[in-house]
Design a protein that fits this description.
Shape: globular
Number of domains: 1
Biased composition (Gly residues): 48-59
Radius of gyration: 25 Å
Distance between the termini: 74 Å
Largest sheet: 7 strands, antiparallel
Region (Disordered): 39-65
């Protein structure tokens, strides 16, 4: 007889709102279903110029910078998440999935309290009002991917409703930017969390098995090595 209790529950991806001062979770948002696909894009922060920018050739300074990086790569994630309460009417009532949607929307909205404070300062004639700071947001995809992020896109497609027109099923396109030490001030808890995330990547890279030159058809690296053209006619 199958022992269903022995089947491990899948780990869910999600978002953790963290108090940047204390480092304590303020709210945890668990995605109902893990996305089927993830689109990740990394753009290296090269120190050198593009070489032919402006029509000119690459200068000596550009050549000296060709293998240098200004900082961590800029990484973005995109995925589609789903919320579905069509078969869980007791969960859907009385507001449908409005609460779940509102929780995600508040990741890109300032609170009314902060807006009122900004309005109060404006009415008092404050010369400069600092932009409203949002809580530290972490995205988690298992234990090996826990990173500070900023949401850059949140597109909601509501596709089913109850008799009161409350949404009960929706698909969300979510885009986010990984925040690095180049984006956060020194000593910020998010910067420390990014460093831990990068250190995890280094450990995983070190665990990968390396290849051999022979598998590439090479006997060595250099102008005289087999398979490497010497440049002579």
């Amino acid at each position: 007889m199958t022992r269903y209790a022995d089947i491990p529950k899948p780990i869910r991806s999600g978002v953790v709102i963290v108090d940047p001062e204390r480092g304590t979770p303020q709210r945890i948002i668990v995605l109902q279903f893990n996305p089927d696909t993830l689109e990740r894009s990394l753009s290296p922060q090269s120190a050198g110029g593009s070489g032919d920018a402006g029509g000119g050739g690459s200068g000596e300074g550009d050549r000296n910078e060709a293998l240098r990086l200004k900082g961590p790569a800029q990484e973005t994630w995109k995925f589609t998440a789903e919320i579905d309460a069509t078969d869980q009417l007791e969960i859907a009532a009385p507001d449908g999935i409005h609460p779940q949607l509102a929780t995600l929307e508040m990741l890109v909205q300032p609170t009314t309290a902060k807006l009122r404070e900004a309005m109060r300062l404006s009415q008092k004639g404050s010369i400069e009002i600092s932009p409203i700071e949002m809580p530290l947001t972490l995205f988690t995809w298992g234990s090996k991917r826990v990173m500070p992020v900023r949401l850059t896109e949140l597109s909601i497609n509501e596709s089913a409703f109850d008799v009161n027109l409350n949404p009960i099923r929706a698909s969300l396109s979510i885009g986010m930017k990984i925040l690095t030490v180049s984006d956060l001030p020194a000593g910020h808890r998010g910067a420390d969390l990014y460093m831990a995330h990068l250190a995890q990547k280094e450990r995983l890279a070190a665990a990968a098995r390396g290849g051999s030159l022979g598998s590439l058809g090479l006997s060595g690296i250099g102008a005289g090595a087999a398979g490497i053209p010497s440049g002579r006619g």
